[in-house]
User: Fold these one by one.
Assistant:
Number 1:
Amino acid sequence: MILLGFIDDVLDIPWRVKLLLPTIAALPLLMAYAGGTSIIIPKPLASYVGVEVLELGWMYKLFMLLLAVFCTNSINIHAGLNGLEVGQTVVISAAVLIHNVMRIGSSKDLETQQAHAFSIYLVLPFLTTSLALLGFNWYPSSVFVGDTYTYFAGMTLAVVGILGHFSETLLLFFLPQVLNFLCSVPQLFHFVPCPRHRLPRFDTQTGLLTGTKDGNLVNIFLRLFGKCSEKSLCIRLLIFQAVSCLFCFWLRYMLTGWYK
Amino acid sequence: GDLVLRPPNLRLVLAAMALFLAPFSYLAFVHYPLAADLRRSILICGAISLGGFFVVLRLIPVAARYLLRRGMFGKDINKKGLPMGEITVPESLGIVVGIVYLVIAILFQHFNFTADSIWLVEYNAALASVCFMILLGFIDDVLDIPWRVKLLLPTIAALPLLMAYAGGTSIIIPKPLASYVGVEVLELGWMYKLFMLLLAVFCTNSINIHAGLNGLEVGQTVVISAAVLIHNVMRIGSSKDLETQQAHAFSIYLVLPFLTTSLALLGFNWYPSSVFVGDTYTYFAGMTLAVVGILGHFSETLLLFFLPQVLNFLCSVPQLFHFVPCPRHRLPRFDTQTGLLTGTKDGNLVNIFLRLFGKCSEKSLCIRLLIFQGCVMPILLLAEIHAYWMVQMMITRNTTSRQFP
């Protein structure tokens, strides 16, 4: 993914092909995946579905592929402010690490413990190296991260979600990215005009950003909470990311036992 | 500048493919009684590899446009002074070969039904090293990394291989030397891993410096790959040891797609080059060959196939280590009137051949060097067969002499 992301940064690949890149990059994962391809139906729904454990087969691999495509591209489009791309990734990674160690601590199943340990080994170096980048990328940015970073970040998180067997939880951590994607759909699929950069308007006098009509969280936050500086807006969005993760922890805690 | 892309030289590459794959196919499917499983896997690998050939042919013109547009091009130094020397030739087309190769190699896993988890680990470690090398090679082409760091790149790229290598770290001492050394099997431990690393660094950089003529980089790689394939199938056919057979089959699965995708690139890179291959290709090529040499357990034979590269490296040492002045490009002098190249005092095979055999055109010189690359192989293979029989004779002689004290 790093290779394809870097090639994209160098050659500026058209976006239709860009969507395909995570598919190609995810191939080794799909080929090597030797784990189970069944999902556990939440208890309340089990009576409706009929079974407690549903064997998905190739559809599970398709889900893995879609998760990789989603994680990479959703981080890529939830961008445009100094420090936003790295910041959101760092918050999600921290949440993943805490989730991993909580599951290891509360689970008696050796396989589950190993899966979450696997995730820790991959996310810990990812978190620290990303923080080093944030040192240069935080407002005001001395460097930009490129598609190389957003694709690499998305793939790393998708990979640990898949091989750590916690992809549903990962999607919950990605709630802001999901919302951002849903809001962006009309423009991405050209139901509505889509400019090259869907960025806010910058006022050189006040130094504040004003929200445009674009359908992404950056502009929606500006329209909801009023104009503010780039740094404040980024902090607000990262707080939203952190709060979403906390909400997910609370949700899992509330639903334990009842859910699985 | 605009993109000038001649149609690929299909006659040449299809002839080359037939030339290189015919003896291999004969040995694999007719001469040696290989297991049906193995034959099926090779056939599937061959089919996917052939598909890759056509995909690369289709993608190179597309990639060439993008690369040119983003400033990744060069001018053909060996045509300086002619109109052809003014054309902006897109560089780093090795990236197309690399990506198509990786996709083929990754997908092939799915079709190897005899794979166990150890095989999967080794195979994926090999692909990780090759992928890492393609990434670092492309970064080098884009950022123009200083050469001291460049030497380090294959070291980094070879890490997955070193980490995952679970094979033996001992070498078998040739029987005649065994009495001097004291043991028949010498356990090298970490020194074996160091050797693996040095092999990767050598293969990549030696191909990189034996370059500068249209088609030379890809051409030499294609010749070596063909030799590797034939060596692999010969060892499978003549060995009864299952591990040896598996190691050489492993090598075939990785080299076959490499050969076909490289031939597609050669279609555009052969004289006169429409595209240049870049460090992306030479590093990728060297790493792929080093990887199969290591995991196929035939690294000594691989080094023999690299004899021209070894000679080129040895001749280059004075300039590379600055004992003697070293220009930016150690290329011959091009005469715009005659269209011929004249050898300079530089210490590389390109110039040495010109000084030994007289001036000639770029295309002829490249062909001469590729023939040299190809010639060492029959000689070495004959020597290998001869040595094998010598060893066999020594075994029987020793056993018979012991029976009659």
Note: Chain B has one domain: 10-307.
Number 2:
Amino acid sequence: MVHAFLIHTLRAPNAEDTGFCRVLYSCIFGAEKSAEDVRPHGAERDRLLRKEQILAVARQVESMCQLQQLASGRPPSDLQAQTSDEPVSLHEAPRGVFGLAAGDPFQEPRTVVWLGVLSLGFALVLDAHDNLLLAESTLRLLARLILDHLRLLAPGSSLLLRADHVEGILSRFLPHGQLLFLNDQFIQALEKEFSASWPR
Amino acid sequence: MFSAGAESLLHQAREIQDEELQRFCSRVSKLLQEDLGPATVDALQRLFLIVSATKYARRLEKTCVDLLQATLSLSTCSEQVQVLCAAILREMSPFSALTLSCDHMQNPHQLSLVASVLLAQGDRREEVRSVNQRIFAILESRQPEGPSLRPLLPVLSRVVGLAPGTLQEDQASLLSKRLVDWLRYARVQQGTSHSGGFFSTPRARQSGPITEVDGAVASDFFTVLSMGQHFTEDQWLNVQAFSMLQTWLLLSSPEGPGTADAEDRSELEGSTLSVLSAASAGRQLLPQERLRKVAFEYCQRLIEQSNRRALRKGDSDLQKACLVEAVRVLDTVCRQDPSFLYRSLSCLKALYGQLGTDAGSERALLPLAQFFLNHGAAAAVDSDAIYQHLFTRLPSERFYSTTLAFEVTRFCRDNLPLFDPHLLGLLKLSFPNLFKFLAWNSPPLTAELVALLPALVDAGTAVEMLHSLLDLPCLTAALDLQLRSSQMPSERPLWDTSLKIPGCLEAFRDLQFQPLFQHLLRTKASGSTERLVPLYQLLQPMASCARVVQCAQAVPTLLEAFFSAATQVADKALTNQLALLVLERSDVLYQVPQYKARVLRVLSSWFLALCKQKPSLVLELARELLELVGSMSNIQSRAEMFTCVVWAIGEYLSVTCDRRCTVELINKFFEALEALLFEVTQSRPSANLPRCPPQVVTVLMTTLTKLASRSQDLIPRVSLFLSKMRTLGQSPATSSVYSEEDVEAIRTRATELRNLLRMPSVAQFVLSPSAEESQCMAGPDMICSSHSFTGRGYP
């Protein structure tokens, strides 16, 4: 099952080093049992740890994506915003997978599947023995849905104040981190359902 | 897309002060009490951003938090508002002021939302158990026309994943029974479109049958690969049930995953195979057994359905994912109940034969290999073909697929304990092929291969492997050329199209260099080594391209892993061979920027480690070492290695390290080093006086002193030489080469060594390595610390 889903900024490789990698949205599906920590601020420490774990993943994804862009010689303009109405072809988008050893940063060893679209990175943090093929196609689906429904291709739009849309999409297509075997028609049906309950 | 506006918004959210936040909370509280319309949504969206934007906990006003929790349970507000409240609470979690509970909840949708908050608390107050209890309460009391159970299964799956022991036996049985119903008995008619809401009477419209992915009418029961325009509740549950099947099977089994010893299991399986499973047909199956039976049938059906030609690309992708999952589930079912083995094997062998060639279908190879690994022994299946495919064909044909590379390396890593000697041998021989995965995809694959490398290292192939590791960047370039030469023009190029290298391509196709390229691109260890020097020249234009550079950056890490493993299996002969190789290759490398420097650092330190492990190495390699220290050019081209070698000579060329050490040999080395030192420091100034690092000078001096202390006739010579060092830096030539500090340090060192030599017996004692002392010697970096009183920071 999926442990976490996150969306973060992706800077082009070799860009002047302006700013940081920012996590724009993250969702951890059900936390592991906390250590026997009865100190007064154990809960806050837990939360801090989770946030930092997610940021660590985001940074690694950004670095992997940048290295891949450099290696494949894709022009950095690939990552800039498009103004056309054409749907972004996600099958050609940079994507990859890498492993996280136990303790670095999660307690359990995990696997990260990522996808880069325009200047956004999407990533799924999986348990070590998940169905990678399904995870990859789920990630592509989530990215497509989020880009479409939030119209992120239009200039000036942002996802920061519309996290509820992302939540709505996740609750249908990746509920509680469960990867679903959805064929095209199930996806269409779910999309219709979502559009109906969510004003744009 | 991440515009300045967004950055500033994020900044504001993080910087908002406590006071202002509390005011905002009051506003939110007010809105939550009065109106749940667009203004509330807007406010909640802002509140979510504020809470989630920072990693430090935000303290929200108590009323606000209480209202958020209350709104979650309200059935009258829109899903959007509920979702926002849940999201905010979840983002704040874990926090101790949470009063939310799922007790008495009847609505699965609401339970799902509340559970997302409860399960984020880290199980501090047994939230997992209470969610679990509620789920089963709803399941048990299921009304036929009640609200949809769809939201329930994912939560259940999550709960089971978080705390497998939470379910009681009767609950587990109930779930298994329900899963059987949903998996096997979903209707095969399409649903009707419910335009009037769930409870309205369905229109009297002819709903057609469910179809397969290729459009044909469904030939058997409903599965995730069944198509329709509208779906019914039980069909939805079918999808979710299959999605969680593998997890449930693994976690609900009493033995747990993979506990049985491989040998015991295959014995058990072997004996069960000969017993027909019909023996159990007579009695009633337990829920768990029924579930396995249904799971088996479902997977068989999926495998059949995956053979059909899908009309839509998305469905074609799903078929591949289903195939992978079906094989995984069959593997689990057979592990838990060997009576399914016979039928599974015949089905899967057929599947292997039918695997297509389009991209993605080879992914099923891995679960297949896993299945045969787990069960093949019992059925005496010759699964060699599949492993050959995995280790030989796949890496050479699809090295560019990062996910495949990752999966294959992981497969090898995870299953090492299960590999029999034959398979292990095959794996070890396939290292050149496995290296291709790394050469092309170095950033994600480095850690994986470092973990796998120790298992690949074998005394028989170690030398060849070291050559391969040092030539990895060259391999990257060759793979690039291979792709350029072989790919069809219509396909999207997998290589860097901005890099134009016609010369290299020509060389790749040139018959003259075929043998070398073929050796580089070989799929199995050949037992021989080829000197690839001509290729380094030819491929020079590619040496700074990004992919090659990335690979080069990974090599030092791999070398460390290699040597750590190799030194443990190396006998005396191999140690010598490796040391020689290190010396030889330290100057023979593909010239990628900074590659040589990094590699030399690792090789030097490991050369010393080899010497330390086997002190007689210096003596046995005396001829080669003499050659190395005989030439000035070696100082310039590989200073670090040179320094280590000289230091090693000083350390280990003595009778205490090897009884065969003779005075003649010591003298021979002495003369060679003395000549070198003379050339470097005293020779006539010329424009070509090479820049010799000061460390080289000091290590030469120290080593000469050490040798002299063992062959005491040499002492006067050394002392004389050392005293001449006082004039170092006074000639215009040397003063331009060395800085003031360097000169000063060299002089001081020379003086110290001379003083030491005035007491020959003390010198001998101090400058010879005893077992104890060599532990604390840090090597040539701290050459001065060969004894305590000359301990200075200067190397």
Note: Chain B touches chain A through 98 residues (CB under 8 Å).
Number 3:
Amino acid sequence: MLSAQTFGGGPGKMKDYHYTGPVEHRFSPYAFNGGTVLAVAGEDFAIVASDTRLSEGYSIHSRDSPKCYKLTDTTVIGCSGFHGDCLTLTKIIDARLKMYKHSNNKSMTSGAIAAMLSTILYGRRFFPYYVYNIIGGLDEHGKGAVYSFDPVGSYQRDTYKAGGSASAMLQPLLDNQIGFKNMEGVEQVPLTKDKAVQLVKDVFISAAERDVYTGDALRICIVTKEGIDEQTVPLRKD
Amino acid sequence: MALQDLCKCRDNFLDSFTTFGKKTGCNSVIPFPDRTSWFNFYTPVAGYLDESPIQFGQIRPVQNSSDIFSQDSVAPSLSSPTNLPLSSSQSVPLPFPMSHGTTTLAFMFQGGVLAAADTRSSCSGLVACPASQKILPIHSHLVGTTSGTSADCALWKRILARELRLYQLRHGRRLSTRGAAKLLSYMLHPFKGTELCVAATLCGWDGGEDDGRRDHVGAKIDCREMSGLGKPVDTSVEEASQAETKTSSSTNLRKSESFSGPSLIYVCSDGTRLQGTLFSVGSGSPYAYSILDQGVQWGLTLQEATAVAREAVYRATHRDAYSGNCVDVYHISSKGWTRRSREDLKEEYYREKRRQEKREKQERDFVCVKDLKQTKME
């Protein structure tokens, strides 16, 4: 196998490629299936949006594989990363929700689901679920809540968060538009639901332009006390 | 589950308890003589510990520890998937990096303990969270700063908080900071050699309750406490000092006073446990140490101490790439912990810049005046 030497021959010179010997490739139990997830919390609503492209390497497996999953009437989770782990994780969460419902006779609140997911993820600390989760929903007071996770279970409550392949591109934009960061002398108006939905659509259109793993279509789930409303918006297919 | 522990009898843990003592060569003075379910906490790696110890480079603690661990799990089905065929000795290579990098510090002064930390969580170059909480309160008089992998720190702090609460319910008093540090260190010990990374400083205020007695004296104190809570301090403490092999001929009064007050202990997942008066942990700690070594004295007022802590974090965030954003300051006194509101250090940078400009302007004016004088003299 070929290897490239990074510090070859001084600045400006081309890297030296030479044969270092046979290189063993270990079987990796993970794969990266791409996709971007975003969640925004407002005063009395929460929005969870994801693209619907499922890719692996240079191929697209599916153009219609949304990454938002409805958990309860007030909570939606978005999972991106390795699709196999996403499916298993959502199955486990559904099972635990049912168990809770049967033993406690009420649905789990968003905060409780977040805490439970943290312990589920940490239960696999040494062979983690390769999933970036974001939970969006209404808390017990009816206010919007977003909980963002890392793959091993560290979480916290935010107002907005982007996760997945285009997260590094989207997060600064959200910081600026929703958090009013890095701007001086601006009036901070609270976010209305329609403005938030429009912002999410614009943000995903931008992401699809620059990230190869994001595109095809956008699925938006809007969580209000009336229920969960879903919209689908087409994105670039190339 | 906690209520279950309190109400029911737990004979099955007796065997595991004594076996643990033998396996790791503990001496007979074990801090938890109560034989309560010391191991009855859910740790996440039941199946992992089933593997041969040679593969993972760690000492296997107890034969039936894995049974105990999985008993407490809420969903037993979760522990079964961990019996995976891990063929090689290294763990599975992760496709993503963990969050690391921080500046946290804590020091003791006459007003208690002060803990400060930045709020940036970075993930190999990307700021995963600019507003994370690195100082986590554990109970009303104990606060822990966290450094290392944020998930590990958050979860182990939660487990520690649960265990301390159970201790409080079972024994009727809070565990001291030293005891909490020891407990955390022992809980992390099975994971020594793995990639778990927790470096915490526990800052707390001990005592200040009806009786200032400590728990690390041994079994005798506990029994006596259980039997006669209204007993005067003197007799029990006297016998306790005999039970201990201390050479100091301290008076009873001094004994009950010396363990009440602020306490600061550093615990690390590699097994380190240090008691001290000043600690700074993280990638920005060298910069923080330089400010703290110069500024920290015992006699500081709260305002002065807060200013020093804040300055130390600010300088560290300036120089260390992995620290930044805001600073959190917590103060622990006999009344418990209080939190100063989170301060964004961006304003401080601008203030500093303005001060710098003013200084430079003054220097320029001074030089001009000097030149003028020299030319006059010639």
Note: The CA atoms of residues 13 and 132 of chain B lie 38 Å apart.
Number 4:
Amino acid sequence: MEFKLEAHRIVSISLGKIYNSRVQRGGIKLHKNLLVSLVLRSARQVYLSDPCPGLYLAGSAGTPAPPTPQPGEPTAQPPAGWGEPPPPAPRAAWPDTEPQPERPAVPDAPRAVDPEPAAAVTGAGDAFRGREEDTAEAAWGRVDRPRVAAAVAVSDVSPEGASVGCPPTREEQPGASPAADCRCAPRPAEAEPSAPPALYPRKRGAAGAGGGHAGCPALCSTPLKKPRRDGGEEDGEEEMETGNVANLISIFGSSFSGLLRKSPGGGREEEEGEESGPEDAEPGQICCDKPVLRDINPWSTAIVAF
Amino acid sequence: MFSGPRQRGLRLLTHAEWCGVPSEASVLLCKTVSMRAGDLAQWFRCLLHKRKDPSWISADIISTVEFNYSGDLLATGDKGGRVVIFQREQESKSRPHSRGEYNVYSTFQSHEPEFDYLKSLEIEEKINKIRWLPQQNAAHFLLSTNDKTIKLWKISERDKRAEGYNLKDEDGRLRDPFRITALRVPILKPMDLMVEASPRRIFANAHTYHINSISVNSDHETYLSADDLRINLWHLEITDRSFNIVDIKPANMEELTEVITAAEFHPHQCNVFVYSSSKGTIRLCDMRSSALCDRHSKFFEEPEDPSSRSFFSEIISSISDVKFSHSGRYMMTRDYLSVKVWDLNMESRPVETHQVHEYLRSKLCSLYENDCIFDKFECCWNGSDSAIMTGSYNNFFRMFDRNTRRDVTLEASRENSKPRASLKPRKVCTGGKRKKDEISVDSLDFNKKILHTAWHPMENIIAVAATNNLYIFQDKIN
């Protein structure tokens, strides 16, 4: 249990750092963010592997398995799967969104163009969204912070993204973030070379979904939180935070796979701009190509979907 | 152990003064003590450069310190993009005791903050590294870099000026040619020494990520610059082109697992360089093997001790600095808690490991919270490669004598350098009863960190940067 709390705490701190790195002068430092994400992954593994029969764990560990095998729910793995690649099966559902290059067990599905996963993800995302609306929202509230981190140039996104469960705020943010995200995470290469403007909304959805897909796992796990949440508001929030964070981590779990994908397509201008200057746009936000930031974008858009 | 005090009057400068900003200054008298050869504890002769007013501005934080090849010049770069060069006083009969004092020689603004409009990013003007070029004529050249741009600066002296131009007045106004009735030959007249710094080359737009290292090759014609994912090779004369010699950027950024943290050319073999990674590994590359040195020639890694695994194992194993020994036979790496000396002929493990502040291992979580765990400490060799030095917290810095296996902790602080006080060794109490004069781990000030140190290439003179203050310590053997 102590490990779990410790891990949770470390995760919160790490997310805070990622968020703060956004406002640092000189751009986001790739090295530091890489290290922070490694710590996040370690904390997540510990968090998930701690066989503490604690509240959340009962929820997170148990529920993920029984309920519908949420596709792409990496954390749905029973404790035994810590640090190990999630089963290829669930993964297969999101071949493009969560490839796991360093895990030989999982076939490294070729990265499809954005629209593809976007489509796939969107559908799933929607399904998820509908289900875990309330808990997800609260959960994502927590995620807002890191998400915000992705938007370097976002001025309208206020740091109070830390305010968990603040729908109005979130709604505004997502609106801003995708655009900002696009700006800040230009990935010409990945940013769908074939992303026609028409795809924008789709991308956004995809990003949302992708993030949502990233977030979906979050959603998937949130239901677990649900019962717990009913028990006590505070505890519920705490759990949701944890669960949410755990999902965030699970996303990182596979190194930087999946989410990093299309960063939320973002504005058309961005897309086109990105395509034109891949090398330059890379660091976009310099090291903004941190997966951490990436997957955060999707979540924001997912929140918008709500 | 220590000889009697010898009073010294010192001209004290503050970092702000160096940069032209007036501030209060105080003079410190330091004593000199004899130092037995190899006795690291006998540092003295503190030439204290310290700002009296504690409310310094962050732009004054020193970000790099480097002696030139002869040791006569010491360059410092700060967070505000300024470079301050100190020059060692020459011995002279009139001031027999002034030998060894470093005084400000030149100050100039090397880099300015820039804004990358395309990416909506501000580029910091902080000087990340300064490297001197070997001196080839009367002028001095150095390379200074911020996150994105490297500049070659020429520092030259001017102590004469021409007088008696025909077409110009003494004021500089042009004379009417018709008024000139006689011609004269201009003559050179002495003037007050003026040191000018002018940018001779600007090497820009070659790095997508933040530049962390530059290193001048032993051929004196090329140099490398390294950022998080790439290393470029430049020719000092050519600014519009550079060769990429290392590229560890994965095709899919999501697979990124490590970044380059430091790189350096071998001191004698112009085809060899090393670069360290955030995973605690060092790769030695030979540029003769291929144009793109993605495949290393040697790979140095010490197996991790599984018993000391923690959340932060990866962070503390990240190498923050790598330096070749002057001999070229060894290299030294600095990670968060230790300094390791590697024999280039043995890749499996270092030949020496020195713990810098092992007592911090149990505090990694707090250090992670306050970001101290990300501090990048540098390390340096002495001229003979018999000792190594690196910094720590609380304005402590550590020296390790490789021959006697002794080490010492010293403190760079004003209080510690009172007049007639010698630099005495410090000790951190790691547990149990705290002895007198020991400092407990919990009372260490983590805001006072010594990240940058430099050792004179030939003599026992060290420069230690403590936030915005530069300390120069020197020993003198009686």
Note: Residues 301 and 449 of chain B are 27 Å apart (CA to CA).
